[in-house]
Amino acid sequence: MADSIAPIVAAEEKLQQQADKMETDKMWIIMGPQHPFSHGLWTLKIKVDGEICVDAEPIVGYLHRGWEKETENRTYPKIIPMADRLCYAASMTYTHLYCMTVEKALGMDIPEKAKYIRIVADEVCRINSHLMWLAAVGTDLGNLTVFLWAMREREYFLDLNVKLCGARMTTNYPRIGGVRNDTTELFDRDILRTVDRFEKALWEIIALMDDSSIIVSRMKGISYITREQAANVGLTGPAMRGCGVDFDIRRDDPYDNYDKVDFEVPVLTEGDSYARYMIRTEEMFQSCEIIRQAVKKIQALGKNAPYRVKAPSRVPAGTHFMRMEDPRGESLMYLVSDGTDKPYRLKVRSPIFTNVSSAKLQCQGVRIADVPAVLAQIDMCLGETDR
Amino acid sequence: MISVVVEYTSILDFIDFNGQYVMDNAYYPFEDVYNLPFAISYGLWKIIGGALAWLINLIFPENPVSDWLMSEPVCVLLSLIIFMLIVFIVVFVCTLISLWMERKCLGRMMDRRGTMVGMKGFLQCVADGLKTFMKENTIPKKVDNMTYMWTVSLVIGVSVLLACMIPLSQRWFVVNYDSGLLIIMAFFALAPFFILVSGWSQNNKYAMIGGMRAAELMISYEVPMLIMIATTALLAGSFNIGDIVDAQYETVWYFIPQIIGFITFFFCATAESERVPFDIAEAEAELVEGWQTEYAGMKWGLIMLADYFRGYVACAMVTIMYLGGWALPIIGNGPIPEIVFLLKTWFVFFLMILVRAALGRVRPDQIVNIGWKVFMPLSVINLAVVLLLKVGGFFRWL
Fold this sequence. Notes:
The complex is a heterodimer. Chain A has a single domain (27-386), classed as Cytochrome-c3 Hydrogenase, chain B, CATH 1.10.645. Chain A contains 16 helices and eight strands. Chain A is an alpha+beta fold. Chain B is 64% helix and 0% strand. Chain B starts with 35 loop residues before the first helix and ends in a 7-residue tail after the last helix. Chain B has helices at residues 36-59, 64-69, 72-109, 123-134, 145-165, 180-201, 205-236, 241-250, 259-272, 297-322, 337-358, 364-391. By secondary structure, chain B is mainly alpha-helical. In chain B, α4 packs antiparallel against α10. Chain A binds chain B through residues 27, 29, 31, 35-37, 51, 138-145, 147-149, 152, 208, 212, 214-215, 217-218, 367-373, and chain B through 106, 109-112, 205-206, 209, 276-277, 279-280, 283-288, 357-366.
């Protein structure tokens, strides 16, 4: 029996050798650090076999500025404006996360009103960040109109930031023990109007993106990631929920008052690039819903409700961590304090640093033209990745 | 020795080209009818010809050189050069206007202002031209220098040549071939070859992929486009541009019988001029600037200008083949057919701007799919419809 198979096996091996000989050379293409697709300063090396990408390797670290080390020389309140600089698009969430970490270390509770104001500010920040991402997706797919329309909508939410705390991007708004100031006059009216307006405008952008078969066909059915792969590689945030993992820290491990607002967590099981795109669009609608509820709660609390309590300057020795749902995924801060007024160590877990390590998984099998469109779903922000 | 001083009035008086008075192209021969545009074009020619003759008389009086300069072959050459220059300048200005139009209209569609440099933004073209002109001419060390230079010259040259092959009206043209549309298509199809070679010569991976994609793009749109040109020629009975326009004036504009062809050809023309959604050869998202990556300064500026030349020619082809060229339905040629032609061309260009504002970029493998599985069958269906119409006797056989 074995003898009769042997010649066939030998012939197959020979064929295989011939096929190996005919194999074309693979080529490394280095995209970045200065490249239109890398929204920020990072490099993606892709190995291509003809048009198909077979391997990818992200290189980050060009923007490393020793953020974690710098915090060790600053008192706790002075780290708040630094936390703004972690990510230009999601400054509010990082400041919020830092304040929550220190509050947890201090074991203090903050006023109800501050919690709701933080929720509103967070969701405005989330919409800001997602619109920034939508703009980037538009340019990566070759449509500049989406970019400019998304940026136009983002402007309204930046104006809301100005109304709330006087700054557009680096807000420096949350404080340890609450928020810096109460909501300004007519802020609730403005935010409700903006949200109503935004929902209509977002449908216009969706009409431009989702109704265009070209743009949908660029994203649909490529770069599949299964639930298990997503979990193994450490994907978090909208990218993970697009792969079918039903997990959102706002719902499953609520911080502040997220357990008192009612919202849905969009999850899609398709796992392709388009699903990851859809999640973020849907999240923007959910954010609008959260903002509406939170604003109502703030109005119900009345004008004179406290929004900040005094916090001690020294944090008792110990280790504490806090995590939250950043617009891009799960961000975490790990604080080691030695009882002085400065942290001994402050570690930041950046969602993108982990998400971008899935570049190989995402890029395998897609064409060169799709690499920007696929990696846009990570929503790169180098400030927090390199810290 | 007594020499007879010959006073030449105009060098243009000498031209008798192939038995046809070449200047018939420039002005209407009936001078007794006073008509401002005709008078202007006629006067322009007289002034140019007279000025040259005066210069020749001034510099070489009573001289054999003067006789040689005023001999017929030299005069024909000179006047043709002048004529081509004028047509080139007209096309150049048209291209700049379409460039400005794109910037402004695209800006409005994207909810921004567009360019704002002088004259409602028109001077931005001048500013861009000056800027690219002033820039240092950098040539990367690793490029294949000869190939790098001649390919880009040819890409630009072929595009400019194309622009000059488009007539503005029955009287404004440089060449009048019986195979007009075919010649234009032939020159259109030349550029991608040079782009392919140029992409290779730059020793840059992005440029090489861009060049390959230009070739990929060409094989996907060229065949359906030629079929549709053949269809139009079948309908009109001629490849000659003037004949096609005349035929449309006599029957109907051809976008009515071949509406499928019009839409398909419009998208093929978009691909031909490498515009969104088919600008895969210079897809700036993944290939930095595609095949143009290593070209800097004036070379890049000229490449961009050549792109708009090609865009203008593609729009002009759509106008000639489907929108009746310079003729209007009842009026016919009218007093200023050139303006009618340009307005129609700019309308087609406006449609291209709309497409660019609304759509994203397709993938290279998708464009081959679109070309062979959508455009190709549609163009054949269009041909079948036209054949049926012809056989049914709706359009006369020529």
